[in-house]
Amino acid sequence: MSSPQSSPTPNPSPAPPIWSAPPAARPGGGVFAAVGIVLAGIVGLLVIAYLALALGVSTLVIGSVLALVPLMIVLLAVRWIDRWEPEPRWALWFAFLWGAAVSVAVALVVDLGVQLALAFAESGRPGEGMQAVVQAPIVEELAKGVGVLLLFAFRRSHFDGPVDGLVYGATVAAGFAFTENVLYFGAALAEGGAAELGTTFVVRGLFSPFAHVLFTACTGLALGIGARRGGRAGVIGWFLGGLVAAVLLHGFWNGSLAFASDAVGLYFTVQVPIFIGFILLTWFLRAEEMRVTRTRLAEYGAAGWFSPAEVEMLATPAGRRQAIAWARSQTPRRTAAMRKMITDATHLALTRHRLVTGRGGSRDAADERALLTAVTADRAALLR
């Protein structure tokens, strides 16, 4: 194969274009997915049992239903971010279950351990401020961050850059926030009735559904940058840097709520601007991913792997919409095949980008060959 800096290998037999105008899901992930999801599911059942004992079954059900509202808001946002290069479903399920079950279990066990240690030391319970600003950020962000790190370690081929890290971090955070909201909503109902529940729901469910996403996104983004730059040793440094940022932001957010004299004013002057900045950063990262996709697919087009119309179809939002509409109009429908080709081509472009920028290795070169084969098969399936 040619050197990373050269043009892509020419297509020995260019195929006819599709209408003038995920690698194939990349191999692997089965064993890690099965084991990880099963273990996280078992932990999830234990967490549900704990919540049922602590809150009561009826209160647990009410809290769970209400917690679905902010969860859906967050997952819709994650889906929007993930549309350009969709992550495999198994990875997203693992991320969600890790956040909703394992991370919550770790936080509960650590909290219990701290209370027992202080009780034996006759020091009393730690203050709520200390728990909110120090203990919770460190324990919770470390627990969530380990889940994102596991996804990187075991399925490196699905972790291409900052957007992937953002998606995985946000999904882990969405799971954690869901279970935490169940606990908060249930406790509010049990202690203060409907009025207290309504206030808690507005504050947590409507005013700050993305709080945990903002925190853990720091870890995911940093890991994604490390993945894009290459080198596993350097990735650990990026992970630790992102984790520190997540802990500091989490502690600042909790502290502003706990100690501010004007919580509403602080929310609109500090927390809302942070959220807006996060949206702008996400938009920039998506735009950069689109630019890279178009540039690299154009190189493959020059080598005969795609027609100019196909590059436009696969590398622009408008082209993808037109392609999906075309696939739906066929008899039988070919929507799934078209989505597969779009996903494979996107992975191919990002794999090529790592090779061109000198951050890829032999594994990326093998991925490139497999993806070229997959795209050729995708085209044949669409033209069949």
Task: Give a short overview.
Helices cover 80% and strands 0% of the residues.
Task: Walk me through the topology.
Blueprint: H1 30-55, H2 57-82, H3 89-120, H4 128-154, H5 162-207, H6 211-229, H7 232-259, H8 263-302, H9 308-315, H10 317-329, H11 335-356, H12 362-383
Helix pairs in contact: 1-2, 1-3, 2-5, 3-4, 3-5, 4-5, 4-6, 4-7, 5-6, 6-7, 7-8, 8-9, 8-11, 9-10, 10-11, 11-12
C-alpha end-to-end distance: 30 Å
List low-confidence stretches. Answer: 19-28
How large a portion of the residues is in β-strands, by DSSP E?
under 5%
User: Describe the biggest sheet?
Assistant: none
Multimeric state: single chain
- Figure out the total of helices: 12
Structural class: mainly alpha
Identify the overall geometry: elongated
How helix-rich are the residues, as a percent range? over 70%
Integer average pLDDT: 86
- The ordered H/E elements are HHHHHHHHHHHH
Radius of gyration: 23 Å
Topology, number of strands: 0
